[in-house]
Design a protein that fits this description.
The chain is an alpha+beta fold. It has eight helices and seven strands. Helix 4 packs antiparallel against helix 5.
Amino acid sequence: MAYNTENFTPQSSKTPHGFLQRLLTKGQVFPFTKANDTIALSLAGEITPSYLKDIEGDNKSLYWNEERLNSEALSGWSQFYTFLLTMTKILLIIFLPLAYLILLYPLLFSHGSWSERWDDLSAAFYGQTLYGTLPCLLIWGHYKLVCKGYYFLAPFLKSKRVYSLNRQTGMVTLYKRGNKVRFTHPFIEFDCVLMSAPSPQGHLNYNLMLVHRYQPYSVGVPISNLIGTNERVVEYQRLWNMIQRYMDVSQPMPDLLVLEEARAKDPVTAAHDQQTGRDPRYWRDMSDDTYKKTLAEIAEKQKTSPATGPKINIFADS
């Protein structure tokens, strides 16, 4: 059943049981609220209007639409491939050209006959090309083919699913290895907990988790991956506000660029936009500079506005 702040079944409170779950809930618990229109600007700024224009017509689905918010992460092989590409680019641009110049030095300035120097250079040049330059060119060529859409050449680059928040069903799903479901429960059964830990540099890193209230799971749903670990606490409150706004079918979806195309496909949001006269391409028709300026104006306004809406009591026994 979809999450609806106007009509929900009151929940029973329950003390966490088990050491791992107590550890998971050791942090600042953000209460359920009737979400306002505040947005997390660190998330809003990740996608620009020009990016959406570039992918228009490509049938490329975004991670967030009127039905669900899908979070994915690179697989272990994908991370290794990204590292390999970075090293390959450095080798091709800097080290291999420098190595060829070094090989030319003995040919031009060392003693000995020209034929001897040429033979030495040919052997070194052949070895460097065969074992250095050629493998790098093959790796880079493979990358360029994948970028052109030949994805069958890199089946190991498939991303892994992390979690899914479904607006239409009100369900939260966490996945495990192999894209298999670890658990799935109604949104209202989760507590939103902000945990913090010091980094090696002495700064606080934050992790915003949805922790199931009634099951002793040792893991939670890491929704802070939408904005990272180094934001201010108020930004995590705004993120929680956005998530609640999205999951609450009694309210229109958050007004974000990434969700703009989907607004017309959600009945509650479409009705709201029609009533308010919202331009259906308000965000998408902006230039990137105008978009950044608009977000900066919103940031100024949000400094003096609450990060979340009024608190609601979802519990029957309190």
